[in-house]
Batch of 4 targets.
Target 1
Amino acid sequence: MQMIRKTLKVSFYYSFVPSVKLEGEVPAAPSEGHADQVHRSELLDDGEWTFRVEGTIIDGNKNAACQSTAKKFSHFFRKAILDLDDQLYPGSNPIEWSSFRSGDDSDGFSITRPGKKGFQTHRLRLQLLRNQSPERFALSPDLFNAISPYLTPNCGPDDTFVKADISFALWQYIKEKDLMKTDDCRVISHDEVLQRVFECHEQPIHAIMGSLQTKLTPVGPTVIDFTLPGHPSPPHGPTPILWPG
């Protein structure tokens, strides 16, 4: 069976809609005892902005949207966490989107909030957590150099793998290099390559997996920081980020 490699394209869109001022509208005078609150004009609502995240599978050969797959954005990400600008939206963080709570498969999600008068820009931090089951890990450089020929073909140092495949690749390396001690098959005698990985000359078999775990890094969230305009401007987007599939 031939493996087809595709790319997940995630795009970000931003738009701002200004407030509509009614003809003859006069700002309300501050009531006694609330002058300080009204004078904080930077926290008065002014217009409305929308930030949208969308995901699309594209064909690596044609660089076009792939219509042959039913998998959508919610299939690849289990959670998104948004942190708004504390100066403008105190006490509103964090905001979470979950693929488990969103119901049907979706191509993305959006958030809409009022703009704040007196601010030209505002910050937004987005964290995207991949939907990975089983969990995937990145390998230390020395471990990757040792066992990459026994992993998925055409893998790169930035790729991630499930623990079962990593363990299998390591044992394939040990068997091919004949590293089990002849007088005690329960002990692995490391060659120069594995000595650089595990920083010792030999190990009992039962200790290998514990040492291997220290060379693996769980895949964390992708964190992206945005500085967005807080006033009417042409819509921003799409800003794409590509994930190899």
Note: Residues 47-58+71-131 form one domain.
Target 2
Amino acid sequence: MNDGSIVVREQSISPGDFPDLKKMQELLASQDFSKFNPMKVKLIEMVDGMLASDIGRLMRQIPVEEEVRNDKQMVKGGAFMNDESPFGFGRGEGVDAGFDEPQWIVYKEKYKYDEMFDKLNPVDGKLSGAVAKSHMIKSKLPNSTLSRIWKLSDVDKDGMLDSEEFALANYLINLKLDGHEIPPELPAHLIPPSKKGFYSAEDS
């Protein structure tokens, strides 16, 4: 194997998290592998448990910390800087795009996302987490970023994505690839139309 594509595919690793193989080969060329300590299975199991549960809890805290930090850096004041003004900081850009439009902004590209969705062979109108992940990692974004996007896109928290949730996930991926930040919470204007009732039920 002269590249990491097989490992990336079989282990569902985001290409963005995979090391440069040529550089790794150069670093390891002088190493004596017979002197390496044997693999500790129990330790690996502990790490797997940490990745499955503890990291998720930590990731839920990161957006809040980023929001506080960004708020401190934001320019304050000015006649057009209040939250209600369409001229507010970042209004109409990135995640704020479409906030004042009557139609869900994701609809503009949904026909493309629907084609991708159908090619992934959904079952009963939904994609499993594993299938969705295999598609999302093609973006080459870090797993930490994709984890946040998944959390926002799986609106009904059933561990699967329907066509609207899948479209939302791809929309957020493209936002990040274009250099915009992923929001800590899903803005009201990005909630899929079929999930509006779900959010209302949660808030009540």
Note: The CA atoms of residues 32 and 47 lie 25 Å apart.
Target 3
Amino acid sequence: MEKTLLLVDGSSYLYRAFHALPDLRNAAGEPTGAIYGVLNMLRRLLADHKADYLACVFDARGKTFRDEMYAQYKANRPPMPDDLGAQVEPLLDAIRASGWPLLQIEGVEADDVIGTLAREGEKRGLRCVISTGDKDLAQLVTDRVTLVNTMSNERLDPAGVKAKFGVPPERMLDYLTLVGDSVDNVPGVDKVGPKTAAKWIEQYGSLEEVMRHADEIGGAVG
């Protein structure tokens, strides 16, 4: 029987739980909403997905190699709210105490760690389930790698990625390069939205071919 590797994008769910839940506090008045939300998500994941191996991955503190490549990377984001920052270390302690291996690797993001583990798992014949709300990780989806979102109950296999974004997983990097990412403060091509990006990739096959045929593209963008 095939074994399963379950990977959790802890950083993604930390923020989503904080903003999705009411202002929960303990008897001492300390904020606990994000802790409650993430721990519930982890319990639900283990109930829904029987995994042989698992890990919960968070961003490490400090800058990453992307900040060195592009100084404006995520520069538009406000500082972490104090009520959320106060919950980070207690949450990490609670995750470890519940038996989850927890990973934070300096110099890279949680996405990078998850991507590396997913690909290594595939090489070893594992099926991989990634729990995240981050669209960037859709590029990892294959017949053996699936994305699940416990907050929306969404499950993305290769066909699901194509249906949602208009491009297959192996073209998600091309797609994201064209549309950019306002959340990360990464610009795309001016006036190119999701529909146009998907149309071009469908028509030309790849970003490289889109660039090669740039002179043929008309309309407002051309």
Note: The domain at 169-216 is CATH 1.10.150.20 (DNA polymerase; domain 1).
Target 4
Amino acid sequence: MKPLLDVLVILDALEKEGSFAAASAKLFKTPSALSYTIHRLESDLNIQLLDRSGHRARFTPSGQMLLEKGREVLHIARELEIRAVKLQQGWENSLRLAVDSTFPVALLSPPIAAFYQQQPLTRLHFTLNPSLLDWRPLTDGQADLLLGALGEPPPLSGYDYLPLGELELLLVVAPQYPLARHRAPLSWRTLRRYRAVATGEGGALTQRSGDPDGV
């Protein structure tokens, strides 16, 4: 496989630079070394990659196909090298992010774009969760990060967290619901006595708090 990768690199440089002399200068090798590497692969596979009958070598159909498909292989090989280096430096191949359904998803676009500018090879996988009140996606191993979790992490969990800001929720109460009899502003102690349902951008409904006996 190594000689094939070497030939792919040579063919790519030869097509871009236009001659063995220019390709050899780019690859810091002698023209004879490049020619020998190609000839050895031609002999091993019993194919002809270059037509050397004219003043300048030209790609045969087999050589042109190997050049085009080989560039895809070279791209993958270089990406693998970068991934290996990034992993050694502590970057992850992918990150799973659980997002609370009430979190404003539009706010994610700028940080996602900034992240991919710095680390384009790490894939971000998002899941929209009805409730992150109990941090369950993280504790169950279903996510690596939570966005929009309410409250602090479970005791003794060792999880760290940073505040993202404040989210204003509009409280809507039906006239016949017992909570409607209380005068505004409503205290948190009063609200905790009643069951609350939250809906976010995704339309998911989630029980947030409240004593079941208070309904």
Note: The chain is about 40% helix and 15% strand.
